[in-house]
Amino acid sequence: MDIRLLPVKFSRKDLPVGTPVVGMVGGGQLARMTQETAVALGIQLRVLAEGPAVSAAQAVADAPVGDYKDPETVRRFAAECDVVTFDHEHVPTDLLQSLEADGITVHPGPDALVHAQDKAVMRRRLDTFDAPSPAHQVVETPADVEDFAKRVGGFPVILKTTRGGYDGKGVWFVDGPDDAAIGTAFASGVPILAEEKVDFVRELSAIVARSPHGQAVAYPIVESVQKDGICVEVSAPAPGLAPEKAAQAQQTALTIAGELGVVGILAVEMFEARDGRLLVNELAMRPHNTGHWSIDGAITSQFENHLRAVLDLPLGSPAARAPYTVMVNVLGGDVDDMHRGLLHCLARDPALKVHLYGKSVKPGRKVGHVTAYGDDLEDVRERARHAAAYLTGAIDE
Amino acid sequence: MDIRLLPVKFSRKDLPVGTPVVGMVGGGQLARMTQETAVALGIQLRVLAEGPAVSAAQAVADAPVGDYKDPETVRRFAAECDVVTFDHEHVPTDLLQSLEADGITVHPGPDALVHAQDKAVMRRRLDTFDAPSPAHQVVETPADVEDFAKRVGGFPVILKTTRGGYDGKGVWFVDGPDDAAIGTAFASGVPILAEEKVDFVRELSAIVARSPHGQAVAYPIVESVQKDGICVEVSAPAPGLAPEKAAQAQQTALTIAGELGVVGILAVEMFEARDGRLLVNELAMRPHNTGHWSIDGAITSQFENHLRAVLDLPLGSPAARAPYTVMVNVLGGDVDDMHRGLLHCLARDPALKVHLYGKSVKPGRKVGHVTAYGDDLEDVRERARHAAAYLTGAIDE
Question: Where is the ATP-grasp domain (chains A, B) (predicted)?
Fold first, then answer.
């Protein structure tokens, strides 16, 4: 008998009474990590995958492949779900609006999500309730850029595509009126946002979860280290951050989540400016890289609270379980086999937590992360950094 | 376009270089919970399921349905796995021996697993290295039972089927020579083991993980409460257990794992006798109900260490993360919908960890468990007991 010929699919009626089905658009590592907690909570996670073997498709029972930009595909996908949520923010706003018009529950909804999709819309909206932002202006010509630079005290300034940028893509640092980056930015074909280049001492991230009826929880404020626009290391809580500043950062994120009507996880990336201001840099409305520490480091992970929020279940405690938790991303390097290195890393550190995303190695690609926690920040940091560097082949001892 | 018509299957070559594929025979909640950690570690879990919608089949991408008693089915299943391991102990020993003869890696191997399958073989083997057991004897006639009773100081005694018993099934308490249970036991058609009825103060469980090259770790000794032969509550660590006794119980389990050549998790259920002896009751060679607390309560869960062990990866720390962790099973009661009760339970206790197995409710059936942890045993116990009782409908406030 060929067991591969037997049916492995099941339908909703085969699941226990009351089992919620959450549809996640996108099959990346965020959907994959969401599955870890969905399995625990008895929630059926359905993934609309970019391909049959993408990160999350390897990890869930139900991962139909389809184009998230095709309304009919997303509508068919959503038809078997109680709620639709996202692994990324690239689903067209108008498509989501049409789903809502059809009575499909979408969290976060398009009216909120647009603020994570369009930086100009986000800045405009934040200004209406005086959320602290860097100086900014939508620019249409190189002359506009020069005028903006004068307004903020001269170059350098930053240009960003209002839509479609991520992990440092779609961002340009402009040193002067003749900088070639200006032409490159305008050549991108989407509206361009100019922003003051903030003189910051470090980057912070405030992650909150909010449910439809308005319950919200705020995770400890973390410090994130970015390299070439990619998050490489997160320390929770942000070392040495004054309690009143941490509370201020949490309040800013909670206010934004409430004002924008976010449902699910909201990540607010901030600059801690040298002059002491906390300025909002970017928004993300999904589990975020700066929250991965919470899987092993918090009572309730950001993935669990995202699921609870989109299902309007009571939210879980975001409190940390250890004095310090450090997460370091594993970025593709010279080594193809991420598993061979585990022999060394797991033997060296029996308390290390390793997360691999089922992604083939490409230079700089996020293929996993490692987490260490404990009482001594320096020790915890060294353990996490060593493991990540060893797995990628950057070090060999 | 019909997205359901697109392929959702993938083959090994689509996975990242070095991705291990672990095959688990049986699609129950143990396989389902193993998937939570397999997803994190980038391990591909393949499940040989009893049906298309069983507990683990809902949670993994690759769950062919087939009969684990059919050699050809198991052989085809194993062909695409690096190692085969188990959700239950019912795979025939000779079938596993034939797999090993074919060069298929099976952990635990049949020579070890037989001791968890056959109680007579287990008792005989434990006697060879003086592991502490209750008095025992294979009996073939009612007269043998009477002789055995005389030898251990009279009735009551316990009769057990040597094979196929679980969760209290295949176990009879015999109060005297005329007890009808004697006939029932012999009518079961399998050899019967008679055991002394131990006068115990409580039941303990010692869980260890052992890898092929002999590395082993021992979890804290836990106290388990059984009801009608089913584990209902586990406290970690066992409250008030003297350190030397805990060490003795761990050593007994480590010795058994080494002597029997166990690879993976070994659970040794023990009686703490009123006279102070620690006596081995049962063995299980798979993640065990008395180890579920480790998902939320230990640095490395029993499921992660089982996967690490069968892949011969270095084992993780079994240390507890909190002073006390209590797990209470959610057994099927009057309520069919296990999800509705979450609204109350999660709101009442933001730190509660709920695990649902994707199983429809039947009276007494294990459909999930809840875990609470903290510094105060009584508080932790009350939180876990309340949540389990509420979910099953035993209480409504």
Answer: 123-311
